[in-house]
Write a structure and sequence with these properties.
The chain is mainly α. It is 61% helix and 0% strand.
């Protein structure tokens, strides 16, 4: 479930009605109704998986997060996701 757009929500210019991954990730971390469907401990791993498969514009995502008044929360989640990524890299090498 994706909620109505907050002003300045990330949009694609080519296909304006397609939701960007950055918006979906922010909505997952910000919306109370959506966040009850998963454990908060799973979210850093979900971010890490998304970053390993897609190019995520963190600046765009953090700007949208600030509009949702969740900037510090997402920064801590991104930090945890980076730590997971570093652990995976060490395990592979």
């Amino acid at each position: 479930m994706i909620t109505d757009m907050i002003s300045e929500a990330p949009l694609r210019t080519v296909v304006p009605h397609v939701i960007l991954l950055e918006k979906m990730l922010v909505d997952l971390s910000s919306d109370k109704m959506i966040s009850t469907t998963y454990s908060k401990a799973e979210f850093p791993d979900a971010i890490e998986q998304a970053q390993s498969q897609y190019l995520i514009d963190e600046v765009r995502m953090l700007r949208y997060t600030r509009r949702r008044n969740r900037g510090e929360v997402l920064k801590s989640i991104l930090k945890a996701a980076r730590q997971i990524m570093l652990l995976h890299e060490k395990a592979v090498s």
